[in-house]
Amino acid sequence: MNDQSNTPVVIPTEPQVLAGISLPSLDLVPRVVVSHKKVVGADWRNREFVDFNALKTVFENCDFRYSNFERAYFRDARFVNCRFDGARFHECNFKSANFYRCDLKFAHFHECLLEVREVVASLPAEPNIRRESLRNLKANAIEVGDYENVGFLVLQEIEATKRHYSYAMSGFDTYYRNKYPTFAARACQPEAALAQFKRSCVGARGEAVAVARQLSTNSCGA
What are 40-60's pLDDT values in tens digits? Predict the structure, then answer.
């Protein structure tokens, strides 16, 4: 029997609709090529992907939870009802990619090219999780020089922070009542609560001003 452990994993051209794909049990999957295909129901959890080629690929009902992607190419890809919980992406290209009804909870991006507003639209609604995701996207935007979107991300972070403190003050649900019992008790002290919220936002506002000044300096120097 031939040893194929080092053979690149290439999805065959036919059929065009690939349902229920099961990859070999490898800790590291060195290469997957699914460009210009439609992938349905793939269970790709807990994998290490390197040089994943998915140009203009449509993914439907796929599970990428807790997987790591290095230099993946998702340009013009379309994700429908896919899960990315805890997935990590490094030096990946998502330009012109679209997300519909996807779960990006705790997904992490590092030095990735993104359609920022597409990703933000798919972030979880829970303000504490959303805020952390926005901070990651802001750091990623700075890493790749996408300064045009930094201000947008700062404003989104402020809104998430505002909602986070509002939930904490009101004891919105069991999570907030258990996590911030003393903070919720201060709801009857709106002035003190508002002051705390403003302190939490001042750093983000400062970043927005700094970015605006940097953009202005760059424009004048051009």
Answer: 999 999 999 999 999 999 999
